[in-house]
Amino acid sequence: MRLEDVSTDVLEEATFRAIAKLGEATNAAVEQEVADELELSTKDRAARTPNETMTTLGYRIAWRRTTLRRNGRIVQVSHGVWRVAEPGESPPEPMTRTEASATSPARTVPQLIPWQRLTVGELLLAQRQVLRELRRRKIIRGKGAVIGDLAEWLVAEAYDGTLAPPSQKAHDIDLADRTRIQVKARVVSAEGGAGDFQLGTVRHHDYDLLIAVLFDDEDVTVLDAIEIPRELVERRGAEKNGAFTLHMNPTTIKLLLGDGATRITDRLKAVAEGLHDPAGVLGAEPAGGEPTDEP
């Protein structure tokens, strides 16, 4: 069977059977078992995601595990280890602040709040409260553009730069050597639709570098990040009325890297790791106190 012919439902059930068969199963073991059951070719087993950090099969299975967990069919034993849920087994109790501070939030937050039990109104309220707290911690600056603000913050930290005032439309970050950086970010879903890779239009030319950041739609981790000189944006981008757009699919990224762009994925991931440091996330109050603008 070809991987592209495997439906979501078929893959989900194959994932569940693999975990049931293996007992306490690691991600790698589940992927191997699923590949064997579906009789996938060597080519399909080796196919990689656009940023080449994991296999396409492993990425699709990760989404199916998420669904299985949300539906109460499997539970996470530890990081990257799963087992079938026992009959009547309840979801884990929410962790206290002290317990959460002893573990990486990236691994515990999905279990802290029973999202499926909340009403739509409660979910909307939670979203606004989360945005307000992120603004208070100075991770984001606006009221809704979380991904864009997060990308700008990561790049500013990685380059030791200063965020430009919101009124500055041409670029987002100033460096000490007067280099001006514009940041564009996109969220890539599991399906990886064509629209996921198209950056926002570059309408202003008062910048030196464009940093394109791709985030994972499931856990908001950095999938890929490319530093692109302005002249390369204008050479490789699609131009219309003096504005440029770039489609950051694997083919374009390969061309850009061959023409002088630089992959900075690891650099941004290193900064992003600090977001999961309990001392930084749950520790001292940042300067400035509560924000004055209400959600």
What does the radius of gyration come to? 21 Å
Supply the CATH class of the largest domain: Alpha Beta
CA-to-CA gap between the ends?
50 Å
Sum up the overall morphology in one term: globular
Summarize the main sheet.
6 strands, mixed
Structural class: alpha+beta
Average pLDDT works out at 80
CATH architecture of the largest domain: 3-Layer(aba) Sandwich
The count of strands amounts to: 11
Range of helix content: 40-55%
Give the CATH topology of the largest domain: PvuII Endonuclease, Chain A
Beta-strand level of the residues, as a percent range?
Answer: 15-25%
Biggest β-sheet: strands ordered side by side in the sheet: 4-5-6-7-8-11
Q: How many separate helices? A: 12
Low-confidence stretches: 91-110, 278-295
Structural commentary:
The protein is α+β, with helices and mostly antiparallel strands. The chain has two domains: 88 residues, Arc Repressor Mutant, subunit A (Orthogonal Bundle), CATH 1.10.10; 159 residues, PvuII Endonuclease, Chain A (3-Layer(aba) Sandwich). Helix content is 40%, strand content 16%. It has twelve helices and eleven strands. A six-stranded mixed β-sheet has the order 4-5-6-7-8-11, sandwiched between helices. A hairpin with a 2-residue loop joins strand 2 and strand 3. Helix 1 packs across helix 4 and helix 8 packs across helix 11. The longest helix is centred in the middle third of the chain and has 17 residues. The protein is globular, with a radius of gyration of 21 Å. The termini are far apart. 23% of the residues are buried.
